[in-house]
Amino acid sequence: MSKHLIPDTLMLEERALHAINAIVGIADPDHDGIPFFAADLMQEPACMTHGDWDYGSSHGRMIDALVLARHMTGSAEGQETEEKYRANLMSFFKEDGLSYRQVSPAHDWEPNANLIDQRAVILSLTSWYMESGDPKVKEAADRHVAALKRIAIKERDIWYYPASEYKEGGWPSSNGILLRLAPDPASFCGRLVMPLLKYHEVTGNKDAFELCQFFTALIIERSGVFNEDGSFNTSLAYRSGHFHTRVGTLDAIARFGKFTGNAAMIAWVKKSYDWALTVGTAFGWTPGDMHEQAYEHETCSLVDLISTGITLAQCGYVEYWGTVERFLRNHLTESQLLDLDWVQQSEDRSNDIHGDISYYKVADRTRGAFAGYSAPNDFVCDVIEGRGHTNDLQICCLGSGTRGLFMGWSNTVTEHQGTVSVNFLLNRGSKWLDVHSYLPHEGKIILHIHADISRLQVRIPEWAGFTKIQYTRERGSIVTTGHGKESSRWVNRCFLLLDEAYEGETVTITFPLSLRTTVETAVNQSFVTEWRGDDVVSITPQGKTKPLYTSRVVLGQAPMKEGSLRRPEQDFIW
C-alpha cells in the first residue's frame, strides 16, 4: 500500500505492533518457551517471574492476542515463539480433554485443570481456528467443550462447577457437590460464556451453546454474584467483588443476550454496567475489587468494560460508543508500557533462576506490555492502602490489552445491512473508507471513500453539540457543504447521516473541541482531570513513579507523518 501524509495521532494498529514485541519477549527460552507471568519493574534490576498461571491461562491469552494483533498489523514478527506457544498449549491437554497446569521446577503446586485457565484455552482455540481453519485445532476445541460439559454439575435449571480445580480423578470434594457449593460462579462459569458462544457461532457446536445457556441462568437467576441494584456482591466468597471477573461476565452475558435476542438480558447487563461505571473514572480506571485489591486497576477489567460497552452500543444504547472511545483514548493506551527509561535492566542472565525468575533485559523484552496494576495517575501502584506494591506487569493484562486494541480497531468502522457506521473517531483503514482523525489537536476528521456506500453515518461526540458542526464533501470538481443544524441529518441520537457516499469522494467534518475539567473519584481519592475532547491531557495530583497523562502534547494543528492505514481484505469479527 502506498504511503502518503496521515495525521500523527493515535493508531491502534501501531499499538498492537508494540504489543507483539512484549508477547514474544516474555517467552523464557531457558524454560521451553513458557512465558513469564509477572514483572516487577521497580526492583533494581527489574525482574520477571514464573507462576502457576504460566500454562493454559498464559498460553491461551498469548495465542489469542497474537492472532488479533497480526490481523491488525500484518506483522510476522516472532513466528517461532508463536509456534512454541501453540505446541505448548496442545501439550497441556490430557485424555479427558481439559488443559492441565504442569509440574514446575521451582514450585510445588500440583497439576490440575484450573477452571479459570479453561476460559483462556477455548478463547485461543477459537481465534486460532477462525484464523487457520485447522481441523486439528477444531478437534481439540470440540473435545475441550465436551469435557467442560461433562464435568459440569447439572441441576434442573442451572449448571455449575463446584471447585476451582478439577483433577484427573474427578472433583476434589463430592461433599462440595452435595452442598451445591459453587465458588465464584463469575470466575469459573460466567466468563466462559464469551468464548464458548463465539465457538458456537463459528462452528455450530451445540455443547458450547448449551453451556452458555445454563451458565447464564446460573449467574442471573441463582448465583447472587450481582445484587438487585446491579452492584457487585462484595462478600469474601465472591472474591470481594473482583472487577475483572464481574465485568467479564457482563461482557459474556451481553453477547449471549444479543445473540439470542433477549432484550431483558441486555437490560440486566446495562443495569450492572451502569453501576460499574460509577465506581471507576470517566477515563477508564477501575478498582481491582471492592476491598483488598481496590487500589489495583487491572487492564483486564478495562478491556471487559470496553467489550461490554460495544455490545450494549450495538444493541441500541448508543451513548456507550462515547464511553468506550474515552477508555480507548485514555487508560487503555496510557497503560501500555512504551517508555522504559525509568526501568533498570540487567544485560546478562547470571542471576537468573531456572523456571522461576529472570533479570535479563526485562525493559527491552516487556516494551509494549500493559499495566498489571496501575493507579489513576501512575503506571505503578505503590499506595499505603490495600496490598501496597506487588507486580507492575501481568501477562493476563498483556493479552487483554491487546484484545482491547483489537476491539476498538475492529469496531471503529462497521457495516450492517448496507449502512456503514464510523463509531469511533480514530484512525482506521477499511475496504469502505479510511478515517483520518485530527483529534485531540483539532476537531476534525476526514473520510476517504474507497467504495460506493448506500448509507453512511458518523458518530459525533456528545460534547460537540450540533450547531457548530460543519461538513464538506468533495467528489471530483463537485463540492457541497452542510451543517449540523439540519434536523434530517441526525439518526440514533448521535450519528450524523450523510446518506450515499461514492468511491473517490472525500468528506471533511469539523466541530469545536470541548475544553473542560472534571473531578474523578477513585476509591475515595480525587483527581482533577483536564480534557480536550475525549482525551485527558493532565491529571492532578501527578503520579510519582511513572506518572500517567504527563507527556501528552497538544498542538494547534495536528502533526502529520508519512504512512498508510491497514485495510484487511477480510474482516475478523470477535
TrEMBL record:
Biological process annotations from GO: carbohydrate metabolic process
InterPro entries: 6-hairpin_glycosidase_sf
UniProt xrefs under SUPFAM superfamilies: Six-hairpin glycosidases
Protein name, as recorded: Uncharacterized protein
Organism: Paenibacillus donghaensis
Taxonomy of the source species: Bacteria, Bacillati, Bacillota, Bacilli, Bacillales
